Known about the structure:
CATH class of the largest domain: Alpha Beta
Amino acid sequence: MALLQDLIQQIDDPILRERIMQETDKLVKQKKFGLVFEEHLPECTPLYDAPIRVGCKVALKTGYVSDIYTVLKIAGDTVLCDRRETHEQKTFPMSDIVAVAEFGEPIYPTLKPLDFVENAPGSDLWHTLIEADNYHALQLLEYLYAEKVDCIYIDPPYNTGAKDWKYNNDYVDSSDAYRHSKWLSMMEKRLKLAKKLLNPDDSVLIVTIDEKEYLHLGCLLEEMFPEARIQMVTSIINRKGVSRKGNRSSTDKKEITQFSRVAEYLYFVMFGNASIKKSEYNMLDSQNYSAVGSDDSTEQVSWLSMLRRGAASHRADKPKHFYPIFVDHKNATIVGVGEPLDLSEDRMTVQSAEGIDIVWPMRTDGSEGRWQLKRDTFITALHEGTARLGAYNKKQNRWAINYLNQGIKDEIKKGAISVVGKDEKGALILKRVSEKLVEPKSVWNQTSHNASEYGTSLLSSIIGSDKFSYPKSIYAVKDTIAMCVANKPEALIVDFFAGSGTTLHAVNLINAEDGGHRRCIMVTNNEVSAEDTIILTAQGYHPGDNEWENQGIAHYVTWPRTVCSIKGCDMNGKALNGHYGCETERYIEIDGEVTSPDTGKKIRGKVYKKAKAAVYPELAKIKISDGFRTNATFFKLSFLDKTSVALGRQFKELLPVLWMKGGAIGKCPVLESEELPDMLVLPKNKMAVLIDEIFYPEFEQQLAQHPEIQTVFIVTDSGTAYREMIRAYEGKDCYQLYRDYLDNFRINTGR
């Protein structure tokens, strides 16, 4: 209606104008079933990297991007422009304007490498951050990964009325009467593209929101995805609550008290056979691990004695299984393992330092026995945590030595027993997985989802700033995504409202937990906050200037967090403190009187005390300073000038796009020479490109030597030639590239 009203105002006849306005008002007041919102002027895109030429469309960097001028003349550093709305001619400094593209006008994207972090040189897992307007990034991703994405997780702007998002390069705030319809218009365009990325047979779209737009969003999702199953979840993110400043009463102007906000909402949109993973925890009750011996006990797995009993249990039966184990008595720690003794050697000849006990495999009758494991196997077991020092028996003046047999190890491999972590001595903490798995409930109440402690505080410890408002708890994002991809170790996850970068951080945590190889693609713009915009403008800087761009979210928050979380250090290179277990109070067993510290009563014959324990015991062994054995690369979605685009001259710009298309395996290749090669065979990236089809025989020969190559690009304008050439590559992903780059990657065509 906003656009329609503008058009009505252009009618010269006042009587006709008034009559049409009256009829329009009647239509507006009519109620319609379903979601009705404005179709606003399409979004325009500033092309900061595109050259400014005579005839091209431009806008002021500091103005509305939809306020478009046409370049009439360029004289040195000044540009004469014609304003489209009024045809007023103005002269601007070249540095004050930027080329723009309107919706429906083709633009030609490329991925410009900005930076990378490599913390696992031997790994081919590379995550990606793309700095871009997410609408155009999604168009490019449609070409790259149509129907290949397993999970999309987004945390879009909540449209609370604060200046936290822009429409056509202008902040949308509470004073904008059309802010709700602008938000819906913005979301609709992006969700249409997102749908094209998702695997229709098995994928999940997750959208988080608060009460300002959750009703509108729910209706929008229902209308856009009628084939999907949609579930809304309420998640407690701040138990203390966030106060809402009340409105003023219309009568006495007193503040009206409102409810304190403690929760947000998550929409799960499930396609095809997608389902939510069952768990031991229902998400409504906090994961506070209770007393040892309860259903959540970590002591349900039996450790066996290293002392051999029964048949063949004497020293003479296996002499190499008779060796000393040295124990620091005060610290109760195994400090060494001696060499096996020959049968002729007296064990009493073995000496130890003061305070170090020597433990031998002695039978209860005082005779010499043997250990279950030979020396080297026992040392390996100590290192991996499957052997440990047991209890000290004061009466017999001896230490117990324990180990896990092959049966227990097999149960761990099968998943019947989970590894919770390691204790302070390095022994595995084990937990038998409950067979009674439950469905997560639709209300989540987890202490670990506290956005203040595990979002804001965590981010501040990494980048040393509170520059980003309201980042998600890393555990909230981890739990959410893991529910959808737990059984997909190779899943592809996309977040096109990346914000502070929590999603990639959480995916790394999921991979570290279960050894997965999930890949994350994040997209964020490089928007500068409203406050910083005022400061930078006053200093004479404009969008596109380095000083301006360095204060944007992608450069100042998202990428630094990605680098630091992978390396395990803050912005200054200092190791990050803590671990990824997240702590809560629990009861643990201790030595002493058989009483409860709370009631004084016996608890199953054992004694307990309150202590801190990990909410995620399986993650407690991962120090934040350890970082992650993974890699990531940082691109900017840039745009090429259509007058100079040709495959032969732009192949260097094309290569990162092809690398993404090939699965982003290994480090993104770089073409060092300006000279165009005949072919590229890249085994580390599992991809190959035939650039000049004349060299197909040599290309085929090269590929025969590298069966690991999975993606093949053929540059040819002939469909017949292409089909003939790929016949030899059955089972590989093959793609035809036209010689004209424009025909390969043109986007923004209004699709």
